[in-house]
Amino acid sequence: MGFYDWMLSLHILAAFAIAAALVLYTVLVVVGRRADTLDRTRLLFRLAPVGGPLIAVGMGLTLLLGIVLAIDSDEFQLWDAWVMAAILLWALFAEVGRRTGVYYTETQKLAEGGGAEAEVLGRLRASTGARLHYAGLVIFLLLLLDMIFKPGA
Amino acid sequence: MLAAIRPDDVDVALLFHVLGAMILLGGLVTAATAGIAGWREDTGELQRLAYKTLLLVAFPGLVVMRLAAEWVYREENLDAVPEEPAWIGIGYLTADLGGLLLLVALVLGGIGVRRGGGGALLKAAVVLATLLVAVYVVAVWAMGAKPT
To answer: Torsions phi, psi of A80, nearest 5?
Structure first.
């Protein structure tokens, strides 16, 4: 196994770390919308901290190793359209993820800091957070399509 | 332009294979997280969430991943390769053995859910889910690195 194979396998593992966090958050978003008590929401928020490091490490490594792979490869270059599209989608995904994180972190602070039950449940049921999360899922899917089909390569 | 982005069959198969694997691993991570977080919880609510995630997320992911793996295998004509590379063996072993373990976890967890609370059977399913996370991380590494 050479340098390129190692970098590629770690790049893919990093993408799977992001995907694992997205599945975790999707379960929390879906179950959270059905939560009917403050205690239940607090219980669900106990799972959320696992997703943060997975997303952070996954995002950092996919970009870094993706650039390393593009530089090391003879088949494609950093300025290829599909590579540039991937970097653009990565940045968009990061921004949507940041906004989603801000929304749910505020909700968690309310739930754990003595906020009113109606307000916490209202924020979990509102479409704002869910829409941001699903937008992130769509962007991640576009990234995956770009990585596999490599349009223009 | 259209010709440049027209997908090959193998790419479509690979997309489903990767997507299925991501859902499978994500479902296992979620189930393991919920199960471990709810290990000492009396109501068993997080343990039941762990079981539902195994059933409704990880298992469908396994089915899609495994069917698409067979599709990729045929599209790539890997059955015609004289000496099968190690990564294919690792892939089949982890997919099939892991699938069997996931089925065992689903049966144990299912009985545990019917009995109510967060009993020993649900905990056994969580232990299996945690073990499967490690198994499939190795599988993902092997699929990417393709060791010979």
So the answer is: -60, 145
- Distance between CA atoms of B91 and B100, rounded to whole angstroms? 14
Chain A residue with minimal CA distance to B9?
A149
**Angstrom distance (rounded) from CA A91 to CA A98:** 11
CB proximity list for B16: less than 8 A, separation 6 or greater: B64, B65, B67, B68, B71
DSSP reduced 3-state for B55: helix
Checking if the pLDDT of B79 tops 80, the result is: no
Predicted local confidence at residue A104, as pLDDT: 95
Task: Kindly state the average pLDDT of the residues B72-82.
Answer: 82
> Which residues of chain B have a CB within 8 Å of the CB of A11?
144
User: Which residues in chain B are contacts of A15 at CB distance < 8 A?
Assistant: 22
For residue B46, give both structure tokens: 């997080």
* Contact state of A13 with B137 under an 8 Å Cβ cutoff: yes
ipTM of the complex: 0.94
Q: How many beta carbons lie within 10 A of that of residue A40, not counting itself?
A: 18
- The pair of structure tokens assigned to B83 is 């000496």
Q: Are A56 and A62 in contact (CB under 8 A)?
A: no
Contact between residue B13 and residue A8 where contact means Cβ atoms under 8 Å apart: no
pLDDT at B91: 87
| A67 vs A78: CA distance, rounded Å | 7
Residue of B nearest to A39 (CA): B45
Q: Which of A5, A31, A148 sits opposite B15 (nearest CB)?
A: A148
